[in-house]
Amino acid sequence: MNIDAPAMPFNFIDLEPAISRDTLVFHFLRHQRVCFDRMVALVRGTELEPLDLIELIRVTERNPAQHTLYRYAAEVYNHNLYWNSMSPRGGGAATGLIGEQLRERFGSHERFVREFTDAASAHFGSGWLWLVWRAGALEILTTSNAGTPLVRGDVPLLALDLWEHAYYLDHQNRRSAYVNAFLEELVNWETANRALAELGAGSEARTGRARASVPVARAGIGMP
Ligand SMILES: [Fe+2]
């Protein structure tokens, strides 16, 4: 296997009070880890075994007969980026290149916050909220269930889990409170800055010449 077991870049207790230890323990061990184990069981001994995680996602997404495996692999990737989209020292307005790009695309931090939270509220059921790089600009989008923008050619910069298991113990059904806590206390802009830097640093990103690629997409899931 060319896919590492999931790891978190912080301790279970480090995101309190925004996200509790119990939420992270269950989320990491009972959700992502289960997806990883089931993915490994389906891959081991097959021709898919040499693939890395992103290659596995792209290959299995194209084959409806392999969509069970695709969903497990996508959930491993999505959660890897989610963990790295948060930091105990995160939250607040973006800085660096991502700050410049957010102001260019949305005009202000407040406008970005409004569009990000509105997208989360408008998404029905389980899924994911994303900030992605698409054709030279930032976009906010959601995917349902295990869906990942990787298969559309987008470069995911940040991911926020919208499944209720991500927030129900702490915020019950108040998804907007969870999204606000993410933006105000947790969001790790450095993950987005690293991905943008790999897209071609400031100049190409600013002029919109950068394009998605597999190596760039990997930047968004940097394992701790
Ligand atoms: Fe999750």
Characterise the protein shown here.
With 224 residues, this protein is mainly α. 52% of the residues lie in helices and 10% in strands. The chain contains nine helices and three strands. It has helices spanning 21-43, 53-61, 67-84, 96-106, 109-122, 168-171, 175-186, 189-207, 214-219; strands at 127-134, 137-144, 155-161. The chain has a three-stranded antiparallel beta sheet with strand order 2-1-3. A hairpin with a 2-residue loop joins strand 1 (127-134) and strand 2. Helix 1 packs antiparallel against helix 3 (67-84). The longest helix is centred in the N-terminal third of the chain and has 23 residues, at 21-43. It is globular and about 50 Å long. The model is unreliable at 207-224 (pLDDT under 50). Bound molecules: fe (ii) ion. Fe (ii) ion (FE2) is lined by residues 27, 31, 79, 161, 163, 165-166.
List the topology elements.
Blueprint: H1 21-43, H2 53-61, H3 67-84, H4 96-106, H5 109-122, E1 127-134, E2 137-144, E3 155-161, H6 168-171, H7 175-186, H8 189-207, H9 214-219
Antiparallel strand pairs: 1-2, 1-3
Helix pairs in contact: 1-3, 2-3, 4-8, 5-7
The chain binds fe (ii) ion (FE2).
Structural class, from helix and strand content?
mainly alpha
How far the N terminus sits from the C terminus, by CA atoms, comes to: 19 Å
What are the secondary-structure elements, in order, as H or E?
Answer: HHHHHEEEHHHH
Shape: globular
User: How many strand units?
Assistant: 3
Average of pLDDT: 90
Which runs of at least 5 residues are low in confidence (pLDDT < 50)? 207-224
Bound small-molecule species: fe (ii) ion
Describe the largest sheet: 3 strands, antiparallel
* Percentage of residues in DSSP E strands: 5-15%
Helix segment tally: 9
Radius of gyration: 17 Å
Helix content: 40-55%
